[in-house]
User: Fold these one by one.
Assistant:
Number 1:
Amino acid sequence: ADIDPYFRSEDWHATFGRGLARAELRDDIIRVIRSRTAPYQLKHLIIESIQGDAFADSIAEDLLALVLDASATPVERQAAVDVLTECKTQPDWPETVKKLRKAGDVESLRIALQYIIQDHVQMFDGSIIAEILVAISEGMAEDDGPNYAGIGWGLDKKMSLVQLEDALRVLAECAPPERY
């Protein structure tokens, strides 16, 4: 990865398989995924390679720290979420989403929303979901904010009536006053 930082430029679907998920490599894996200087492509490849393996449970705390690290790339953070959702011992997801919301950057908020959308909608109040959507919208409205299309697409079909009512209440409070 240091010699050719674009080593994955054409093969993002290639993986190591389960070859890296070995106890004797645990410390090396943690060192790489915690590294500020390791190329994100390498970190992503390693994280991907442990998905669905029991080994991931042994480094769950480190993966959670990566999810909460706003300086990590969105690709690394989302891969860590994907691995954690398959671990036997689950993190406290409502608390994790709360921490991501508190971080306040658009990427942290997007990762929180993405977790919710991935079949975890029922774990959260509609007001929390709406507050995340509003915060993402406000972050994108900044001059240098990132741009996303379709944020929250399909949420209405996954939310209960009570969640929708709570979400609409929050969204109505944020709507600009009528001009007529």
Number 2:
Amino acid sequence: SEETLEAAGAAERLAAKISTQESVLKSLERGYTDFIVSGEEGTDEAHALADQIQNLSNELNENRDTLEAAEQAAAKLASGMDDAASEADQLRSTISEQELNLEKLKERYVSLALSESDTTDESQELAERIQNLSNELNENRDTLEAAEQAAARLASGMDDAASEADQLRSTISEQELNL
């Protein structure tokens, strides 16, 4: 389908962006090596180049992680496992159930605290159950949020790939002229 082709194209564009970033990073690192060899690593230009290297390296790592996550998701689908959408739906359903159960436990705790039949053991057990369920719920929310952010990064990364590559090539050309 057209959507499948677009998704495949997005992964290819990200892979191409990563390849470009790797090449640019190597060039920038060679330029920084020149500063070190010439004893000029303390100059403003060398510091600016070091910052560029660090920023590009961080972005490259994020892009690699995004592509790896996408490749793993694709491999998972290809191997016959549940598709990502149903897994996300299952996680959302689990989160909804946990939220409901947590509210019920909290209501029970409040009722118990207000009643005269409150026993320390019962309150303590209920408090532990609330804490455990809260921790589980937060972990599931974090997992879902991380997956959604990875998908968003992949989508936005594709949009900027071409212009960013041009900008990096321009920066390299300027750096090489200054060397």
Number 3:
Amino acid sequence: NQNIKEVLKQVFAVDYEENRKIIASEIYEKVDINDKYTYFVLVLATYDLGTKHEFIQKILGERGENVLKELLDQKILVKKDGRIKLRKGNDFTYDFKVMIQRIPDYLGYYRQERALKKENFLHVISEGINITALHEIQKIHASAYKQISKIISKKENRGDIPMFSMSCMDRLIESVDKK
């Protein structure tokens, strides 16, 4: 019987030791986090500084503004000092299905022209490898996540550039030879 914290640490690359993530789980009964616009308004509201109304408008348009109004009316989000934040907690989901569902939406924001400015990065590599290499690659992804989290968690790095970072690797077959 592993406790939930231990299971989450194994499934998601999140630093639960520091207890920085406080899940606002009471919102599940009130909103549809599977809705793209609701999801992204909530994501923006989880930023340490919160988000600005103008960012929701620029990023999500009229539908995002409608969701914002709804979430403010339901008191899930609050406005304070010109910023919009979750009323409780600083995160809202670790639902694996929701994360997978949102990957194409995140990738829709990728712009090739920003690569020339060194403002983004994208790679896809596919190759037949052995189990040792598979484990080494997973460690690299986990290490990169920790490094990125460390940069993002520093107060001096807070700002008004909404960004995302994601990493994903997996094998293309279900069973592997453990040799």
